[in-house]
Amino acid sequence: MSESVAPAGGVVVGRERLSRVAVAVTFFCHGLFFAAWAAHIPHVKAALGLSAGELGVVLLAAPLGVVSALALAARLLPRWGSRRAVRGAVLGYCLAGVLVGLAPSAPALFAALFAWGAFQAVLDMAMNTQGIAVERLAHRRLMSGLHGCWSLGAFSGAALGAAAVGAGISLTAQQVMLTIPIVLVVGTLSLWMVDDVPAAPPDESTDGHAANRPGTRRRLILSGTILTLAAIAFAGLLCEGAAADWSAVYLRTGLHTSAGYAGLAYTAFSLAMVAVRLSGNRLTTRFRLDRLLPALAAVATVGITSGLIADSPLAGILGFACLGVGLGSIVPNTFSAAGRVPGAEVGASVSTVAALSYSGFVFGPPLIGALAAVVTLRFALLLLPLLTATITVLTARTRALA
């Protein structure tokens, strides 16, 4: 009797392990393919004869595609399931990436980047939804580590793209060489992905049958809990976008450092985020989210405020590192919490939080630029500690994170 039970337990454990590997590799490949093209942007600009302003408009296509597709992802995921969505989205994501390299003109590049951003969004939501399903299967928190895998993929992609440029490999050739293994690996590993978790039972105040009606589902998705989680993620992503676009500029022009030294600000921010995300599974298992996330956000608030007030490049770098510490676990855990909202479909609720929050990443850097034109960049960047302080309060008070 015991001989027949042991293999069954081993099969369950093995399936859980394989599903964890499958979703982790998907996160890594998403980040790898996303970041690998960045080093080619100057060559694309020169090949198409684009001015700096024209390039800026064209590059806006990808984030617009992301935001536009998230509403579609909210409808598709409950119908298709994240496993099928991953398979279709990774194929579209890679093929659209190849089209980016083949674009012969600025309008064609805009269209290709828009499509690439749209497939990127669907894959992003599908793999996050699958991550929540694997969390439920494993009975442990995994989202911070999965987002850490994405960050590692992005680092690897940036290095690979730079190496390809140095070796004289074109963007199209690079994208094709990446597409084949990514589609094969993710497509194969998707066989071990698990079924999505069903919607959690509705609250006592919500009738079980009524929760399945479209109007009730919309009210659940746009509930106060979902909107609060979206606000937290919005603030976090706005700070991420501002750090990506303005940290080096602040050190270079505001503190008059060298270009190489200025780049250390974003490097410190990124490395701090990766460190927090890779250790996030243990941290979120050991500490309650409504205590851990406010504590990390408080570190960000104090650190970035001190870094901006002090007239020192080293203080600025340390300030952005503290900002990375505070933001590292925000998006993974707000997405995971959205997947646990009672009565709402996991894919729909995660997509809703993403759709409402990703606009912060898109419009945050222009907002900082507009404020800097009115005051100074240093005062404009003081918006960041205001947002992290807001995150501190909201994460401490949000029931979904308790």
Give a quick summary of the entry.
With 402 residues, the protein is mostly helical. It has 17 helices and no strands.
- What's the architecture of the largest domain, going by CATH? Up-down Bundle
Order of helices and strands: HHHHHHHHHHHHHHHHH
Based on DSSP secondary structure assignment, what is the total number of beta strands? 0
Low-confidence stretches: 1-8, 203-217
Task: List key phrases describing it.
402 residues; disordered N terminus; 2 domains; 17 helices; 0% strand; Growth Hormone, Chain: A; mainly alpha
What would you say this structure looks like, in words?
The structure is a single chain. The protein has helices at residues 2-35, 41-48, 52-59, 61-80, 82-102, 106-138, 143-166, 171-189, 214-221, 224-254, 259-286, 289-309, 313-327, 330-338, 346-374, 377-381, 383-397. With 402 residues, it is an all-alpha fold. It has two domains: 2-192, Growth Hormone, Chain: A (Up-down Bundle); 211-401, MFS general substrate transporter like domains (Growth Hormone, Chain: A), CATH 1.20.1250.20.
Outline the fold blueprint.
Layout: H1 2-35, H2 41-48, H3 52-59, H4 61-80, H5 82-102, H6 106-138, H7 143-166, H8 171-189, H9 214-221, H10 224-254, H11 259-286, H12 289-309, H13 313-327, H14 330-338, H15 346-374, H16 377-381, H17 383-397
Helix pairs in contact: 1-6, 1-7, 1-8, 3-6, 4-5, 4-6, 4-15, 5-6, 5-8, 6-15, 7-11, 7-14, 10-11, 10-13, 10-14, 10-15, 10-17, 11-13, 12-13, 12-17, 14-15
